[in-house]
Specification:
- The chain has 203 residues and is of the alpha/beta class.
- The protein has a single domain, classed as Rossmann fold.
- The protein contains six helices and ten strands; from the N terminus they run E-H-E-H-E-H-E-H-E-H-E-E-H-E-E-E.
- The strands form two sheets. A seven-stranded mixed sheet has the order 3-2-1-4-5-6-7, with helices on one face.
- The structure holds 5-O-phosphono-beta-D-ribofuranosylamine.
- 5-O-phosphono-beta-D-ribofuranosylamine (GRF) binds next to helix 1 and strand 5.
- It holds the Pfam family Formyl_trans_N.
Length: 203
């Protein structure tokens, strides 16, 4: 299976995907790593792994739609069959992403449907939640709103701050994302509008 990864930041989730493939746990080919930030660590990781990279600067497009249309055209041209958003920090245009629904997943650092958007760790702490976590979901036009596939949970301890929480969550994200991608490419997991199907049954 051919995978393109989109990332805006340091790329530790990308690193986890690459490590899973190295171990033989994830039978995929990474055909492209794309970013909206030329300085993203994810691009350096991809280069080191000999994966083609693409950096597109949103500021060189007239508007969001123009950027998204070019981005998705290039993703399609890469031959990717599946798209993984691994810390991609832009909202994507609904029309441009529609052809990819069911073939695009995102990892989000909250127990969705709680805390869509930014500052999820802070918001979980402010709400005095006892649990926090990460979710992998199918991407739809609704920001962080597509059907949830799988979640990883942890307990919030007294005295936790935003950074500690993010740090404890990250290794869980690094297991969750490759595991979900593995199920997707093996066809055990399938898109469904309401609840994803696992071995043909609603999750
Ligand atoms: C992760 O916490 C991910 O859930 C969020 O952004 C962060 C990306 O980290 N959407 P990295 O770039 O994969 O290290």
């Amino acid at each position: 299976s051919r995978i393109a990864v989109l990332a805006s930041g340091r790329g530790s989730n990308l690193a986890a995907l690459l490590a899973a493939r190295e171990r033989g746990d994830l039978p995929v080919d990474f055909v492209l790593v794309a970013s909206d930030k030329a300085g993203a660590g994810a691009l350096r990781l991809a280069e080191a792994a000999n994966i083609p990279t693409l950096a597109l600067d949103p500021r060189s497009y007239p508007d969001r739609r123009a950027f998204d249309h070019d981005l998705f055209a290039r993703l399609a041209a890469s031959g990717a069959e599946w798209l993984v958003l691994a810390g991609f920090m832009r909202i994507l245009d609904g029309e441009a992403l529609t052809p990819w629904i069911g073939r695009m997943i995102n990892i989000h650092p909250s127990l969705l449907p709680k805390y869509r958007g930014l500052h999820t760790h802070r918001r979980a702490l402010e709400a005095n939640d006892r649990e926090h976590g990460a979710s992998v979901h199918f991407v739809t036009a609704e920001l962080d709103g597509g059907p949830v596939i799988a979640q990883a949970r942890l307990s919030i301890e007294a005295g936790d701050d935003e950074q500690q929480l993010a740090q404890r969550l990250l290794p869980l994200e690094h297991r969750l994302l490759p595991a979900v991608l593995g199920l997707l490419v093996s066809q055990r997991l399938q898109w469904h509008e309401h609840a994803p199907l696992f071995d043909g049954q609603p999750l």
